[in-house]
Design a protein that fits this description.
With about 450 residues, the chain is α+β, with helices and mostly antiparallel strands. The chain is about 45% helix and about 15% strand. Helix 1 packs across helix 2, helix 8 packs across helix 9 and helix 13 (about 300-315) runs antiparallel to helix 14. Bound molecules: 2-oxoadipic acid (OOG) and nickel (II) ion (NI). Belongs to the 2-oxoadipate dioxygenase/decarboxylase family.
C-alpha cells in the first residue's frame, strides 16, 4: 500500500507539471522563487540552520498551494473524498461574500507535523453561492448547467471507493489515481455554454461565469513559497510579470507573522463557445494567474484579533494620501516583533524542543514553566508555521484577478453550517491544530525530563 503522503507528493508534482505546461509563466515564477530562496539561505546561515533543524528546508522546494472553485454541494462532497485519499482534510471556513465575492471556502491540507514536513500541499477550495444570484431565471439556468456536468472521471470515483473500502491503494493504483484525479483540474478551452449564456452569467459576476461555464474546476493558480516576498515582488517585472500593487497581509517584519501574498494578473485565454447548430463562436476568458507567498508564525486567537484590528486600522483610518504600505507599517508598530514578546504575550504558537540531553540544571523540576526552561537554555522555541489562509488577503487575490473592481454588494452573511452540510463534514479549527502541536511538544519535553519517554 502507498501512504497518503506519497500519493499527495505524486499528485502535487503532477499538478505542477501540468500547470507549467498550461501556464508557462508559472514555470518562470518557480525559477524566480528558487533563485530568491537560494540567495536568502546563502545570506542568512542562521535561518538556514533553523529551517534545517525543523525539517522545513526539505519541504520548501516542493511547497505549493493551489485554488479551485466548485459549483455544487455534490462536487464539494466528492472533492472532500478525493482529497482524503491524499491525507488532505478541510481546515477553516472563509466567508468571502463580505468582500463582494459570491463564494465561501475551506482549505484542504495535511494536518500532522510529519505529513506537513513531507509535503504541505494545500488547495483553497471555494463553493459558489448560487443563492447570491438575484435573478431567479439566471439562477435556475446556472443550476441546470451545473447539474448536468460531471467533473470526476469514472476511474477516479472507482479508486476513491476502493480506497475507502480497503484503506489504501497499491502502487499502480496510486499512479492511476493521480492521473485520473488530475483530469478534474485540467483547463478546457471549450465552454459548455453559448456566448450569450456566458455573457449573462459574466454580467451577474465574472466569477459565476468562471465556475458555471466550463467542464470542470480548472486549477486557477499554483503558489510557490518564497523566503523574501519583497525581493521576489521587485524582480517580477524582469521576468515579464506585472505584479499586483500591494502585497496582501501584514507588512515586512523581523519575525514574519501569518502570510504575505502577491499575484500577477490573470491571463486572457482563448475559449470556444458552444454553437447553436453551427460551429462555436470564439471568445476569451481570464481566470488563471500566478501567485507567490511568504509564510510566518501562526497566531493565537489573541494575536489574530490584534492582527485583524491593526489591518482594519491601516485600511480605514488616517489620511488617504498616505500610501497604504506606509499606513500598514505604522499600524503594525503596535504588534510586538521579537520572538520573546510573541511568546511572552501569547500572541503566537511555538514548538518546544530540548536543546540537548534530557537533563535539568539543579533546582529545576520537569514541571517548571516552559518559559523558564527556554531562558535557562534547556529548551529551544521555534515558531510554528501558519499553514492556512487569510480571508481579507484571499478577497484581494480574487479581486485582482477579476479585472479590478468586481465586488458586488451582497446583503448576506457567513453560512458555515450550509457549507459544512454541502461538504458532508465539519471543517477543522486551525487554532486547535496549532495549539495541539504546541501542547504536545511541551508534554514530550516533560515526559523526556521525567525519564518516561518511550
Ligand atoms: C482563490 C483566491 C484565494 C489565496 O491564496 O488566498 C487564494 C481563488 O481565486 O480561487 O488562493
Ligand atoms: Ni492563492
Amino acid at each position: 500500500m502507498i501512504g497518503a503522503d506519497e500519493i499527495r507528493t505524486r499528485f502535487a508534482r503532477a499538478m505542477s507539471d501540468m500547470y507549467r505546461q498550461e501556464v508557462p509563466q508559472y514555470g518562470a515564477l518557480t525559477e524566480l522563487v528558487a533563485r530568491v530562496n537560494a540567495r536568502v539561505l546563502h545570506d542568512d546561515p542562521a535561518l538556514k540552520a533553523r529551517l534545517e533543524a525543523t525539517g522545513s528546508l526539505a519541504r520548501l522546494d516542493v511547497e505549493r498551494h493551489g485554488a479551485i472553485r466548485l459549483g455544487t454541494a455534490a462536487e464539494l462532497a466528492t472533492m472532500r473524498r478525493l482529497f482524503a485519499v491524499m491525507g488532505m482534510v478541510p481546515v477553516g471556513y472563509y466567508d468571502l461574500s463580505v468582500a463582494g465575492i459570491p463564494v465561501h471556502s475551506t482549505a484542504f491540507r495535511p494536518v500532522d507535523d510529519v505529513a506537513l514536513g513531507r509535503n504541505p500541499f494545500r488547495v483553497f477550495t471555494s463553493l459558489l453561492r448560487l443563492d447570491l444570484i438575484a435573478d431567479d431565471g439566471l439562477r435556475a439556468e446556472a443550476e441546470r448547467i451545473l447539474a448536468a456536468r460531471r467533473i470526476f472521471t469514472p476511474g477516479v470515483l472507482a479508486l476513491i471507493g476502493q480506497w475507502e473500502e480497503e484503506g489504501g491503494l497499491a502502487d499502480v493504483s496510486a499512479d492511476l489515481f493521480v492521473r485520473e484525479a488530475l483530469e478534474t483540474f485540467r483547463w478546457h478551452r471549450e465552454a459548455t455554454v453559448s456566448a450569450a449564456t456566458y455573457r449573462r452569467l459574466h454580467d451577474a459576476h465574472r466569477l459565476i461565469a468562471d465556475v458555471v461555464c466550463f467542464k470542470g474546476p480548472h486549477i486557477n493558480h499554483l503558489t510557490p513559497r518564497t523566503l523574501d516576498i519583497d525581493a521576489a515582488q521587485a524582480e517580477m517585472p524582469s521576468y515579464g510579470m506585472r505584479a499586483k500593487d500591494v502585497i496582501e497581509g501584514p507588512p515586512r517584519r523581523a519575525c514574519p507573522i501569518l502570510l504575505r501574498q502577491t499575484s500577477f494578473a490573470a491571463l486572457e485565454e482563448p475559449i470556444l463557445f458552444l454553437g447553436e447548430g453551427h460551429a462555436g463562436e470564439d471568445g476569451c476568458h481570464t481566470a488563471r494567474f500566478g501567485e507567490i507567498e511568504q509564510r510566518g508564525v501562526a497566531l493565537t486567537p489573541k494575536g489574530r484579533a490584534l492582527y485583524d484590528r491593526l489591518l482594519c486600522a491601516a485600511r480605514d483610518d488616517g489620511p488617504k494620501d498616505v500610501p497604504y504600505g506606509m499606513r500598514l507599517e505604522r499600524a503594525f508598530m503596535q504588534f510586538p516583533d521579537t520572538e520573546d514578546a510573541l511568546r511572552g504575550q501569547e500572541l503566537a504558537y511555538f514548538r518546544y524542543d530540548l536543546a540537548g540531553a534530557a537533563t535539568l540544571p539543579p533546582g529545576f523540576s520537569a514541571d517548571a514553566p516552559i518559559e523558564d526552561m527556554v531562558r535557562a537554555g534547556v529548551v529551544v522555541a521555534t515558531p510554528i508555521t501558519y499553514e492556512d489562509f487569510l480571508p481579507v488577503s484571499a478577497a484581494g487575490i480574487f479581486r485582482s484577478n477579476l479585472g479590478g473592481g468586481g465586488g458586488a454588494d451582497y446583503a448576506v452573511s457567513a453560512d458555515r453550517a450550509g457549507f459544512e452540510t454541502a461538504l458532508g463534514a465539519e471543517v477543522l479549527d486551525e487554532c486547535a491544530l496549532y495549539a495541539g502541536l504546541q501542547n504536545r511538544s511541551i508534554t514530550d519535553i516533560r515526559d523526556a525530563l521525567r525519564g518516561t519517554a518511550v
